[in-house]
């Protein structure tokens, strides 16, 4: 489309009808074929929209007034959602609508990118009637209002901190702990970190909670080692919040958006809190990666286990294994599990977790999956099942080639990004595998994130 025939202009107010949602939850309206992306619009709705940006092939709008609402529209229960909190994107869509949005998104992407037209994408496994208060971790930036320290959220697309007293996707214990810690820091006059001047003390407060054990860890991220009244602050935290088992200080003096600095010190209690997924116990330290929705993590891992179809005789490889969560889940039903992960500390956690659970049939290696697994192949390891759970960018192509050469009976692909899942499934299909089905799992209700598990088997004759 040339500039001359773009059918809308900036600041114009027009009536549109939404026909779709983008992967990040904005409504899509077509004006003479020209797509306009409008946050908060839902398919089937009509609205007055102000055009706020025009590019060559698409534009952006702001919803001014709904003239016809969708039956799927609900009133967002969170008071800060409408004020632009960057945490959730779909609170205005019914939960049923969210689950179908995620399923359809996966189906569309599998067809468009993977050319996988006949692969069944099952209904998304959701959280039932309670898709709220699921997060076991709250991680909040600290700011200031009228000389008082406040905790809040970053406004969507900015670094402005907006005050928030409660987050309805965070579990009660972690949510209440953040407020209690904020009050204690205020009592001792601890100054909030100011990004612009790189001054002030407290940058972030983090609360991590083991839902099955009721154990809580508080992490104070400070701009420097100094924390005035540290002992009194810790005493107050321990006395006010009964679930606390660990208080940790992390020092981050860098001018960066990254939350954690390199120095972490336990200032009270234990280095770990514990939690169970199913029957397996995990030790969680301040820096460990651990899934944030425990209820749905169990659903996800159960699905991976189901697709692995283990009988107890199998050798399994778990690529991108993190702290060994899926590996240990699989190890309950397999003869032997080999896990590989690039972060050395995560592998230390994985080994500790195997020991904690008395599991001696799981072995872990540090390194890139695409380097370590070919080496295992050279050593004669022949897996019956390979599980992969890569980061958003998907699997390295060299790893996919190794999987094709190793030809396990089944591949279970756990994915947090449908686009790279579709790309990788196409490569595996071309290499002799068949995608049996894809199961979306809603790990992050109210947000646009989609997690999937896919099962692949070797095609007949391969
Ligand atoms: C989506 S997480 C999965 C973690 C784990 N399976 C779980 O459920 O907790 C992806 C993991 O892959 C690791 N990773 C990234 N690139 C890697 C690579 N090339 N080889 C091995 N691990 C890698 C990351 O450090 C991260 O722990």
From TrEMBL:
One of its GO terms (biological process) is methylation. It is an enzyme of class 2 (transferase). CDD domains: AdoMet_MTases. GO terms for molecular function: methyltransferase activity. Residues 7-65 form the TRAM domain. Keywords: Methyltransferase, S-adenosyl-L-methionine, Transferase. It comes from the Bacteria. The active site is at residue 416. S-adenosyl-L-methionine binds at residues 291, 320, 341, 389. It holds the Pfam family TRAM. InterPro entries: MeTrfase_TrmA_AS (IPR030390), MeTrfase_TrmA_CS (IPR030391), NA-bd_OB-fold (IPR012340), SAM-dependent_MTases_sf (IPR029063), TRAM_dom (IPR002792), U5_MeTrfase_fam (IPR010280). Its EC number is 2.1.1.190. NCBIfam families: rumA. Belongs to the class I-like SAM-binding methyltransferase superfamily. RNA M5U methyltransferase family. This is 23S rRNA (Uracil(1939)-C(5))-methyltransferase RlmD. The gene is rlmD.
């Amino acid at each position: 489309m040339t500039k001359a025939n773009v059918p809308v202009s900036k600041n114009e107010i027009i009536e549109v009808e939404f026909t779709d949602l983008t992967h990040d939850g904005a409504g899509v309206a077509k004006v003479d074929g020209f797509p306009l992306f409008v946050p908060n619009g839902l398919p089937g709705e009509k609205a007055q929209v102000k055009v706020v940006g025009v590019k060559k092939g698409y534009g952006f709008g702001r919803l001014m007034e709904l003239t016809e609402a969708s039956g799927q529209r609900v009133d967002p229960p969170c008071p800060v959602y409408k004020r632009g909190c960057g945490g959730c994107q779909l609170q205005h869509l019914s939960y049923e609508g969210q689950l179908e949005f995620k399923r359809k998104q996966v189906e569309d992407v599998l067809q468009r990118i993977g050319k996988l037209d006949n692969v069944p994408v099952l209904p998304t496994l959701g959280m039932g009637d309670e898709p709220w208060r699921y997060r076991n971790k709250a991680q909040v930036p600290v700011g200031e209002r009228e000389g008082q320290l406040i905790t809040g959220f970053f406004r969507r697309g900015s670094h402005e901190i907006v005050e928030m007293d409660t987050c309805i996707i965070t579990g009660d214990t972690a949510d209440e702990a953040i407020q209690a810690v904020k009050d204690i820091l205020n009592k001792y006059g601890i100054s909030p970190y100011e990004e612009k001047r790189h001054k002030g003390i407290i940058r972030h407060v983090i609360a991590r909670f083991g839902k099955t054990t009721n154990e809580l860890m508080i992490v104070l991220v400070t701009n420097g080692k100094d924390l005035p009244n540290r002992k009194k602050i810790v005493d107050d935290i321990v006395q006010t919040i009964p679930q606390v088992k660990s208080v940790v200080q992390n020092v981050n003096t860098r001018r960066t958006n990254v939350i954690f600095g390199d120095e972490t010190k336990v200032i009270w209690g234990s280095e770990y809190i514990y939690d169970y997924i199913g029957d397996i116990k995990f030790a969680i330290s301040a820096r460990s990666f651990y899934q944030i929705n425990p209820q749905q993590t169990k659903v996800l891992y159960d699905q991976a286990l189901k697709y692995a179809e283990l009988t107890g005789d199998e050798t399994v490889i778990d690529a991108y294994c993190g702290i060994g969560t899926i590996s240990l889940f699989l190890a309950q039903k397999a003869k032997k599990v080999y896990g590989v992960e690039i972060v050395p500390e995560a592998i230390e956690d994985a080994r500790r977790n195997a020991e904690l659970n008395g599991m001696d049939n799981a072995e872990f290696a540090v390194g890139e999956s695409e380097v370590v697994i070919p080496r295992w192949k050279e050593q004669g390891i022949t897996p019956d099942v390979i599980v992969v759970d890569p980061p958003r960018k998907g699997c390295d192509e060299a790893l996919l080639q190794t999987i094709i050469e190793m030809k396990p009976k089944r591949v279970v692909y756990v994915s947090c990004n449908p686009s790279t899942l579709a790309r990788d499934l196409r490569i595996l299909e071309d290499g002799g595998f068949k995608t049996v089905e894809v199961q979306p799992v809603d790990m992050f209700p109210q947000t646009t994130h989609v997690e999937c598990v896919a099962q692949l088997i070797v095609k007949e004759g391969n």
